[in-house]
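quick one before i forget lol
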Amino acid sequence: MQAKNIFQFTVQFIFLSFTLGFCGLFCKLQAQNTLTWQQTYNQIGVYKKANLLDSALVVAQKAVEQAQTAFGNRHENYMVSLFEVATLCEMQQRYTLGLVPINQAVALYKELYKQEDARFFDYISLQIRIWQLTNDHDEAEKLCSTYLKIAEKNFGKVSKSYTTLLALQANNYQTRKDFIKAERCLTELLPLREQLHGKLSFEYSSSTYNLGVLYQRTGRFSKAEKLYLNVLAVREQLFGTNHKSLRYPLEGLSGLYNNTGRAAEGKKYALRYVELAAKQFGQKTQSYAAALYVWADCEKYLGNYAVADCLMQVTTQIHKEVLGEENGFYASCLSTTAGIYMIQKDRRAEKLYKKSEEIINTIYGKKHESSMGRSQHLAIYYALMGEYKEAKKRYLKILAATSKKIDNYFPHLNEEDKKDFYFNTKGIFDDFNDFAIQYYEKDKKLAVQLFEMQLKTKSLLLHTSNKMRDRILRSENDSLITLYKNYQKRKDDYAQASKMKVAELQKAGYNLEKLLDTLQKQEKQLALLSEDFARHAEKRNYSWQAIRRQLKKGEAIIEIIRVAREKIRFRPEKDTLYVALLITPHTRKAPKLIVLPEGNKLEMTYYKEYKNRINYFLQDTNSYKRYWLPLAKELKDIKKVYFTPDGIYHKVNLNTLKNPQTGNFLIQDIDIQLLTNSKDLLLSANAKANKPTATAQNSQDKNYKTSNSTAFLVGYPDYTLSDDKVVKLLEKAEQENKLNNRSTGKETRNFTNVITELVGTKKEIEQIGQLLRQNNYEVSTCLQRNATEDTIKTVHNPTILHIATHGFFNQVSTDKDNPLFRSGLLLSGAALYITEDSLSVMGKEDGILTAYESMSLDLDETDLVVLSACETGLGALTDGEGVYGLQRAFLVAGAKQVLSSLWKVDDTKTQELMNLFYDNLQKTTNKRIAFRQAQQTLRQKYPQPYYWGAFVMMGGE
């Protein structure tokens, strides 16, 4: 027994000794492996410090292999080695090579630590940067949006993690040309980085530079130049004159000067950039290629096409070697080189454009917007080369794709996204307009596409207000709201999927056709449940023949198009061009295109003359010939014209043009009805067809007008609210500047003149109320203290809304402003705002109803809004979208017709004009005819157009 125990003890001792020896050996080996990996990892830093990035990358890749062998691929050392590889790939512009290691590193970090600490955000920031640099902005944006919220929650906004991600988000928006969101991010970012780092820091200067890029891309060149120069000075102070960070301000300044006609000055910065890139990055890097690209751009602007071509050959080859051919950078190089050839009408451009298009189609698919951009380049090329058929084929393809995009999700974007979409695609419309006009004599049917494109796109933003969404969400219909929210989610999925590459779609399991089919089914369900949705989601494409069929004998429709040639690439002529498309009942094959020459003069010299002759009661024998005569020659036997203005035609009242041959004003010879879009004619006809007739209504209610027609009249505001302090301040100002019209006399919201009392508006409101009551209207009047901003905001669908007060439009804009804030109406308490006492008396309202606020009024069933004030028809002109001001705002709010003024109006004469209008309204139910008759009557009494011609009525009947 004892021997047995001794034997067992001996065995256990031997086993324990062996085990301890093995563990010691294992620990020794593990320590040796750790030391070996650590030595390799430390060597990375040595090479980086010596700027031997190629050697550093080789060592980093070796560290990854050692870590995987020694510790496995679930160890921190493996993770940090991957991160170093990705970092070095970014530093060497080998972005595609860095994508796999950074994705693996981030995934492993999440697995090992299961938390989002500060170091994790270094990893995620690098991942986002590499996604951006490999042109996958969808993935980058998704990561930014997700981790910004986490960073704010974990660290707050004044933190490195949050500000780094916000900067990346701003860059992503810039790349996608979403400049409003980009500027919002940068505006938030700058003060945060100032708190964190100070203004004299690399981080703050980076955000300043990005804001400069945004200013440059949105045409604010002087501001961009100032920021670029500031960034250059700060970085030179921080790092010296040869630091690699100087590449960005040098690149920005060179490009800016090229685009503003200062290419010689731009070349100086470009050459400095090239020298810097060669020293700091080497001649086989993407940074060096980018510098050559900038230099080539300078030579192109200077007309040195051979030099530009040579430089582009080199930069294209570098991109090809570094990134390969299947990437957006290489495709862009091909397109730029093709552009150099196209300027010279060199046929080599075609091959390069097609190759670029082929690459983009492979990456993104033929239906992607990047592919459409390449098709547009080819269309321009073929047009310049006189290959009309090829150009037309490309243009029609682009227009069809854009039209489909408008149909599929444009109406359901929010207002800002709609605006971005419209202005980012407007270049397509401008290019086609120019092409169609250029080749019209060769192919008259181009006028068909031109006219029908106007039907689709003119006043697009106006006709697709997001009020539909608000109505649905306020409907208290739970089923409808749930269905709509689900629809919006599917709509977002479709919009996201439409931007993805082919490979990404396949990986995600998305099928665009199935997504679209699901959306269309949900649209049908929504249309059944909601009239608002059915009306706004309509995808009908109207034809010019449908418009023609609405015209009666003696009628015509004229669609005005402004072509801003200064914005059209490769166009030698820079004079703004106006054309008219004319349709009469006798038009058969296509609308007739009429060129209205001297566009720049029409907008400036000739318009100033027109206004001066109006204001100073001078005879005007020229404006008729300039603005109307080319059209009049085609209007034989026409007595009524439906007129859709654009550009300067929004500011000229055609009725006031005097024919020097007959001595008649146009209002005496022809009936002109203003429309926002020619399809308003069809929409009005459809509305009339679906509206119950008066006979049908009378059969149930003899006094149908009493129950259906209401009028809300606002005027004679108490601007001071009888505040003694304000009255004394204004009495003094009134002695110096007594105004007798309905203009504030102010050029900005910071009013410096007196707001005069408009006694005529009190009488106007009282007399109009009496006339309307006689016509069986239910009338509500708000005068003096009751004529408040809040009162108008609570109005609910009156048949007529009439506002008589001071109006304003500020011509001076700032870079950031919304033009809808620069026009408005003054109401009770407005003077308190001027004297800075408004908050204590008016609460949240300041007595100034801006155009922006007016858009949200509840006027969906309102037939007419009368803005009996000065300059209420003015605003910021936008090609194809009309006037951004009060007139537009009330149309967006739902009013069918808006009566507004183009210049300052006399108080007593305006009162008289309005009384004549409402008196005529008792005799005819047609408001437009009633107003035209009122103008004619007042003209006979006061022949000068200043008195009777200020007001115009916009909208269908």
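fyi The first helix runs from residue 2 to 49.
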